[in-house]
Specification:
Blueprint lengths: L5 E4 L15 H9 L2 H4 L3 E4 L9 H6 L3 E2 L8 E3 L14 E4 L11 H9 L3 E4 L15 H22 L18 H18 L1 E2 L6 E5 L3 H10 L4 E3 L5 H14 L5 E2 L2 E6 L1 H4 E3 L8 H6 L4 E3 L1 H4 L6 E4 L13 H9 L6 E4 L21 E5 L4 E3 L7 E4 L9 H21 L8 H4 L2 E4 L2 E2 L5 H8 L2 H9 L4 E9 L6 H11 L3 E8 L8 E9 L2 H15 L15 E5 L3 E2 L12 E6 L5 H9 L7 H4 L12 E7 L2 H8 L5 E5 L5 H8 L4 E4 L6 H11 L2 E4 L5 H4 L2 H7 L2 E3 L8 H15 L3 E13 L17 H6 L4 E5 L2 E5 L9 E5 L2 E10 L5 H5 L8 E9 L2 H11 L18 H9 L9 H14 L6 H13 L15 H12 L8 E13 L4 E12 L1 E3 L2 E3 L1 H18 L7 E3 L4 H14 L3 E5 L1
């Protein structure tokens, strides 16, 4: 069938917007009309499609056949990957396959192609003599991306109160051609030139990242507007001059042009060593030696970021979430981002989703951390459409076909690929069911990452190993083959640790390998050869940085002790008990230890990596399935079934590890601690240190172990932040006059969408009971006692100066006075207060619910003798109201509010109404039977709150921790106010919600384990993270890991 001269064109079915085709009717006409002798094409069969940019009839008019049956075709063409079930055997296929990158998600397609003895050509690999891809759509992505954004920019400015010419512009697909779209942009430009733009939004500065095809396409559209390009260094001056000009010339409050600025990596980062200047080759090889400056030097003057650059995780981000939050609070003019790269969670951290052509924008509010599908409200608009080129399907198809048609004849008529020109031969991944030599690395890379390979590696330990990081055009220029050949030819072996591939023409790829050898000389030879590959020399023997093939980062060579065999290569092992939400972030941090990607935060430990190769995590749970779900996708992790109350079972696993982290409920900790003391293993918990655990202090010291408690968020990070502030003040001879601390796990503002403005990520029973605990604190020298029954009513309104958008309140949190002793400020501070944060109004509603009796745990007669009442009956009994008055949500809400005031549960009408709304929201008025498991009002309330106040799949939580201290300096008689803030939002990862609470607690506990593993904590016994040996590296690692801590003084 190969080489029969019959060509098939697939009907694209992956995306409804995909209207491109590999060839236009005119291309087909030329191939058919010139005859097979000249073109190599005898027939063209086109699958019917009602959405293709060129209608079937146009293909039929030039001699193509229209049929779903492509079985007679020797060569089949497409744009995107076809469905597996339509891949026919013994044919040649050409499309964008992405299989040459050995990515797992594309391997089923490759396996299908191999099994069906197919020949596969990938457009992405057709490269000209100049080394650049011949077939690409980058400029069309840039063109469509900017036009679409200008359309949205007009709408956004209108929502901000400004009418602009951009409002008349449509999105790219709305125009019949690229020329028509350009004409519309030109018309907008003419209006700007004649009518101007409102001075209140000027200067409008578009910043373009990168200089490749994507950026060139975007700039091509931008240049249709009246514009001036300025260099990055001139942005501050432009900003000042434009403002001054509009203020001086009050008769003309308009600006008649827009401004552009193209930035490269030199404008985005600077060396951490201030004595050094930027060097591009050094930056690509050692990005860890550079710090981001885009948010300081460019972003403060930017209206629109047009992101066209490739980025990988080892580089600093262009703009992080926390950087944006800071910029917005400082009045940054940023209106929006056109992320044409569409790199989710990439160089622009808060772009966490892709958008579609028909709904191209989302709005992100950085101060609330919330996402919205509208143009109104606070924040910035973001465009992140994946298939922009198809918006100009006609021109994109013409451009693509102009080049592809030159190759069709020889591809359609050739059986022996040896007869193909080199650029097509190199683009053939599979020929007649076998990988071609250039792509034999694919199974090598897959095999290196297989379970069998890992098992064999464990059995046959090599004496020497090194971590190697490679980046560059590894796959499209086949440099990965050269690197792997070097390793294997020298007698070494490799294991693929990580791989990230470039997604466009300019993009580089990144692979992290563990290279091993039995002989130091062999490993040295491999290192020398890889270094030569990375730094080729010219004829004069001088390294040519312009011709560098790859960037190379080498770790330290690690040597195994052959006398110790398997023990020498034993991974340090941590046992995590408990498989709740907190476990996964802890396991992920620990298992990443020792990898190149962890170097930034590992450096905070100031450790020699030879002391610890990597960490293996065992997750133990009473239910094996729970543990297995936690470790899914985490390398170096094992799930086991473990009963922590079974001493023998517990000791069996504790004896095998180096350290234990208990994320179990506090009642389990003493049992776990006894096992750790018995087996001389360190222990970390995130819970409060109980009296029973404190009593084990001397036993722990005698065993030579540390039991590090209260190493979570609150308690944990709060301790570390507080002690850092207090110790720094004391070091300056300051006296702490006041210490206040507030912490809360809350729904993000977007998720606080119920009357209570609160949600539970686990059973609410614990939180409700905590609201009935008494509290004591000191205020202005006076001791304040709060009874448990009055706790909710003691809530105090709170506004944070650094986060003014949050309407909060705080409730006293248990015994604040003990922190006077723990923090050693009891004798100097006249105010010591620790509070729990909630959104304003929470305390009044919960206090009213408590007075109704909804939190009473006594058995109710209503449930006796097997009675199963409805929720309505239950509520009417508690409120002393007739059931018939609870008919209909709106009517019931009014009656409930009136009754709450009548019986004295509420004095304020507003509180009564909000409480009534909460009761209705919980469904306590519904004519539905209560489950028989409920025996008390407390049971019923917990049930309904767990059902109705749970987070949905994509909703995010929020953690807010805020310390404030007043420091008096007797020497100068001055007083300073010191503030420290942690604000973290939950994220969505692989479609799953990762809560901020889980991350902050889990990561903190894992950091405690790492500090003990590295022997950074010298003290033994039962400890809290109050000393510098814990909190200094602990806070540094938190920040380096991405949890931002803000400190201010005034």
């Amino acid at each position: 069938m190969l080489g029969n001269g019959v060509v098939g064109i697939l009907g694209e079915s992956v995306n409804k917007w995909e209207r491109r085709a590999p060839l236009t009717p005119s291309h087909c006409a030329k191939l058919l009309n010139n005859g097979r002798d000249k073109t190599g094409v005898d027939r063209i069969i086109v699958q019917p499609s009602t959405k293709r940019i060129h209608h079937d009839a146009l293909y039929e008019d030039v001699g193509c056949e229209i049929s779903n049956d492509l079985s007679q075709c020797g060569l089949v063409l497409g744009i995107k990957q076809p469905k597996l079930d339509i891949v026919l055997p013994d044919r040649a296929y050409a499309f964008f396959s992405h299989t040459h990158k050995a990515q797992k998600e594309n391997m089923p397609l490759l396996e299908k192609i191999l099994a069906e003895r197919v020949s596969l050509y990938d457009y992405e690999l057709i490269v000209g003599d100049h080394g650049k891809r011949l077939l690409a759509f980058g400029k069309y992505a840039g063109r469509a991306g900017l036009i679409d954004f200008l359309h949205g920019l007009g709408q956004r400015y209108l929502s901000l109160g400004y009418s602009t010419p951009f409002l008349s512009l449509g999105t790219s697909y709305m125009y019949s051609s690229l020329a028509a779209a350009k004409a519309a942009v030109i018309a907008v430009g003419e209006e700007i030139a004649s009518q101007g733009l409102p001075s209140g939004i000027c200067p409008i500065v578009f910043v373009f990242t990168g200089s490749g095809n994507v950026s060139q396409g975007a700039q091509e559209i931008f240049k249709l507007l009246p514009h001036t390009f300025v260099s990055p260094s001139k942005l501050p001056e432009l900003f000042v001059n434009t403002k001054d000009q509009t203020q001086r010339n009050r008769r003309s409050k308009s600006v008649f042009q827009v401004y552009g600025c193209v930035v490269t990596s030199e404008d985005m980062v600077e060396p951490t060593d201030s004595t050094k200047s930027f060097n591009k080759a050094d930056y690509y090889a050692h990005p860890e030696h550079y710090r981001p400056i885009f948010h300081e030097k460019i972003a403060p003057y930017t209206s629109v970021i047009v992101n066209c650059m490739y980025w990988e995780q080892r580089f600093p981000r262009l703009l992080s979430t926390s950087q944006l939050q800071h910029l917005i609070t400082k009045g940054c003019p940023l209106v929006g981002i056109s992320d044409i790269t569409c790199d989710v969670g990439g160089s622009i951290e808060f772009v966490n989703q892709t958008t579609s052509i028909d709904s191209p924008f989302f709005r992100y509010d950085p101060l609330k951390g919330s996402y919205h599908n509208d143009m109104d409200g606070n924040g910035i608009i973001c465009l992140a459409v994946e298939i922009l080129p198809t918006e100009f399907a006609k021109e994109a198809t013409q451009h693509f076909g102009d080049i592809l048609s030159q190759f069709i004849g020889i591809l359609a008529s050739t059986v022996d690929i040896k007869k193909l020109p080199s650029h097509l031969k190199r683009a053939c991944i599979v020929h007649q069911g076998s990988l071609t030599p250039l792509y034999e690395y694919i199974p090598r890379m897959r095999k290196s990452d297989s379970e069998e390979a890992l098992a064999n590696s464990a059995k046959n330990q090599h004496k020497y190993n090194i971590q190697v990081s490679l980046s560059g055009h590894l796959f499209d220029k086949f440099l990965i083959n050269e690197a792997l050949d070097i390793i294997e030819a020298a007698g070494g072996s490799f294991h693929l640790v990580k791989c990230k591939v470039g997604q466009n023409t300019e993009a580089m790829s990144y692979s992290e390998l563990e290279v091993t050898a039995d002989n130091r000389a062999v490993l040295d030879q491999i290192i020398d050869s890889l270094t030569t590959l990375a730094n080729p020399t010219g004829k004069d023997g001088v390294i040519s940085k312009e011709s560098n093939k790859i960037s190379l980062i080498l770790g330290k060579i690690e040597e195994s002790d052959t006398k110790m065999d398997s023990v020498a290569k034993r991974k340090t092992t941590v046992l995590i008990l408990g498989a709740g939400r907190v476990c996964q972030p802890a396991a992920e941090l620990l298992t990443s230890f020792g990898s190149i990607s962890s170097r930034q935060w590992m450096s905070c430990l100031q450790t020699d990596s030879e002391e610890l190769n990597e960490v293996h995590v065992i997750v133990g749970s009473l239910y094996l399935k729970d543990a297995e779900e936690i470790i899914e996708g985490i390398t170096n992790a094992t799930a086991v079934e473990l009963d922590a109350m079974n001493h023998k079972n517990l000791c069996e696993y504790v004896s095998q590890v180096d350290i234990v982290i208990s994320l179990l409920p506090p009642t389990f900790h003493v049992n776990v601690a006894n096992a750790c003391i018995e087996l001389k293993k360190h222990l970390v918990t995130a819970s409060y240190v109980s009296d029973a655990l404190s009593e084990l202090n001397e036993q722990a010291k005698a065993a030579g172990i540390t039991i590090l408690g209260e190493m979570g968020l609150d308690p944990g990070i709060d301790h570390m932040m507080a002690m850092k502030m207090i110790d720094e003040a004391h070091a300056r001879n300051g006296i702490i006059k006041s210490f206040t601390s507030h912490c809360g796990g809350l729904p993000s503002p977007a998720a606080a969408n119920n009357p209570l403005a609160y949600k539970f990520s686990w059973n609410p029973a614990g939180a409700i009971r905590a609201g009935q605990n008494p509290a004591i604190y000191r205020s202005g020298g006076e001791i304040v006692n709060v009874e448990g029954s009055s706790l909710y009513d003691s809530a105090m309104k709170l506004r944070l100066p650094d986060l003014p958008a949050f309407a909060l309140e705080c409730l006293p949190n248990r015994n604040s006075l003990v922190y006077g002793d723990l923090y050693k400020i009891g004798k100097e501070a006249s105010t010591i207060f620790r509070g729990t944060l909630r959104y304003e109004g929470f305390g009044k509603i919960m206090g009213t619910l408590a007075r109704i009796g909804l939190f009473n745990s006594e058995a109710l007669p209503l449930f006796e003798n097997g009675k199963i009442p409805t929720f309505k009956t239950f509520l009417s009994e508690l409120l002393k109201i007739k059931p018939e008055l609870l008919e209909g949500a709106i009517s019931a809400e009014k009656k409930i509010a009136e009754q709450l005031i009548t019986v004295g549960h509420c004095k304020e009408r507003e509180t009564a109404e909000k409480t009534a709304k909460t009761i209705i929201f919980l469904g306590l008025h519904e004519e539905t039977k209560i489950p028989s498991s409920c025996k008390s009002a407390f049971d019923v309330t917990c049930l309904r709150m767990e059902e109705r106040l749970a987070y949905s799949g994509t909703e995010q939580d929020m953690v807010l921790l805020y310390h404030e201290i007043e420091v008096e300096f007797p020497d100068t008689k001055q007083t300073e106010n010191h503030r420290a803030t942690l604000l973290e939002f939950g994220t969505i990862k692989n479609g799953k919600s990762i809560t901020a609470m889980a991350v902050t607690v889990g990561v903190a506990a894992a950091i405690g384990a790492l500090l003990l593993l590295e022997n950074k904590i010298k003290a033994r016994g039962v400890l809290r993270p109050l000393e510098p040996e814990v909190y200094e590296p602990g806070l540094d690692i938190l920040q380096a890991y991405g949890i931002k801590l803000m400190e201010k003084r005034n």
